[in-house]
Amino acid sequence: MRTIRWAAALTGAAAALALLTPAASAAPAAGRDDGLGRFHHQRLAWKACTLGPDDEVGAELDKAGARCADVTVPLDYARPDGRTMTVAISRLKASGGGPRIGTMILNGGGPGPALDLPPYMRDLMGPAGPRYDLVGLDPRSLGRSGGVDCGWPSGTWIKGAGATRRSFDRSVAFARDLAQRCARTNGDVLPYISTRNIARDMDVVRRVLGERKVSYNGGSYGTYLGQVYAAMFPGRLDRVVLDSSQDAPSWGPRLIAGTKRENGRALGDWAAWAAERHATYGLGKTRGEVTATVQRIYAASARAPLAVGRYRLDDTMLPVVLFDNLGTDEDAARASLAASMRVLADAAAGRPAQPTPDLDSELAFLLTGADSRYGSGQSAIICGDVAAPRDPEVYWRDVQRQREGSPLFGPLGEGISPCAFWPVRPAEPPVLSGSPLPALMVAATGDTRTTYARNVATHRMLPGSRMITLPANVHAPYQRGYPNTCVRDRVNDYLATGRLPARDLVCAPE
Fold it and tell me: How far apart are CA 58 and CA 116, in angstroms?
């Protein structure tokens, strides 16, 4: 799974936040029916998950024994007698190994689809896995849940400001075009897409499944969704795992801002790794030489887009490639990035350059419309949660302040997004959670997405939580399956027994 699809390290929204109880919302309060009875008592038609011959996700779910269903929910919870939509869920029922524990809802971050997760998570969870009904839910606007597709020429809304004013202006035009496409094609549903409404959908799913409480396992953005659900529907969660947590006050459209230090460190660590393998990749014999090679590639991409096979990669997207590949310190990921940089170094020098399979997949995602649905739906949620500054000059000034200290990741983090031109403003204030939530958190010290500081902030905001710290550069280590027995065993013991550790823990690297 691409790390960019787990992205959740956001800043700049604290001033817009309010500490809300459910009764303060414009939608129905959590404890009252308010016209939702017909949704709570609907009968689901469970069916095979495969939709057609090319549906790999459905085929894997069917192979694992899962079943799928569509849950009808209000489009607008303030008007439950109005238009409806369906959210798609998959369920892999408990299969033994001990008494059934209950239902667990899964979210892997992004925001992105989660229908595919139950078989994968059952394997990660060890002996606890078969004791849960595992439910994957595609959040509204994504995947099979009314997927928003604005016809974008990219699978992401993330784009750096580049090295020059001309590059920045291109990024502004790109963001404006993305927002206008969504206004033309999906403007009637955008007002109803938000994390608050996704949490409301989750609670309808809970009621339809007949559960008084559900357990929850969320990674990255999924940790924010879990916090919102807990704040809006207190007392309805049982066992909760938050893997690489996004603190609620920092959630918002200015994705990546505030992570430049962590990404800079990760780039330096990768450069040292690549220097030790200069004979293989030819990027430089020292950490400094490899870093200088990356800077030369960036400078060349600012002069003219790099020709890499059928793709053209400029200085607004090169930092996105780096960010996307610095989410873990595992050797396979580092080797993939090194091979990509070798190709880009050739392109920067004017030599013929063909992408590796990994780089081809990356550039197809970033530079073509093949994954338009993914970026469209993701941006609909983020722009629907928190308003962004509307004046491009605000972003330009912020970019300029960051260039000297972080020429690659500063302009990326402070760059403009389609939220600056979004056709609708958020319908409700974001939720700032501060209520007790006895969750088990997992946090890595070198996380380049949800930084360790953000994990610590979340831990402080959730009385009763416990945190496992892993000294490593990795995002969502538990859900990723990062090779650390201590993390895996501690989480799985909690999922099996419901007993949190007596105190916070540190798991040594392996």
Answer: 8
Q: Model pTM?
A: 0.93
Is 474 within 8 Å of 482 (Cβ atoms)? yes
How many whole angstroms separate alpha carbon 134 and alpha carbon 104?
Answer: 5
Tell me the two tokens of residue 322.
């780096």
CA angle 50, 107, 71 (to 5 degrees): 55
Please give the structure tokens belonging to residue 454.
């953000």
Q: Give the β-pairing of 214-220 and 237-245.
A: parallel
- Measured at the CA of 113, the angle between CA 421 and CA 118, to 5 degrees, comes to 160
Query: Is the omega angle on the peptide bond into residue 111 within 30 degrees of 0, that is, cis?
Result: yes
- CA distance linking residue 172 with residue 416, whole number of Å: 6
Rounded mean pLDDT for each run of 10 residues along the chain, 510 residues in total: 35 25 38 80 97 96 98 98 98 95 97 98 97 98 97 96 97 98 97 98 98 98 96 96 94 90 97 98 98 98 98 98 97 98 98 98 98 97 97 98 94 97 95 84 97 97 96 98 98 98 96
| Closest alpha carbon to 78 in 378, 426, 428 | 428
Structure tokens at 122: 């059952």
Distances, alpha carbon 485 to alpha carbons 444, 501, 503, 504, in Å: 14, 16, 19, 17
Ranges assigned E (strand) in 124-179: 132-137
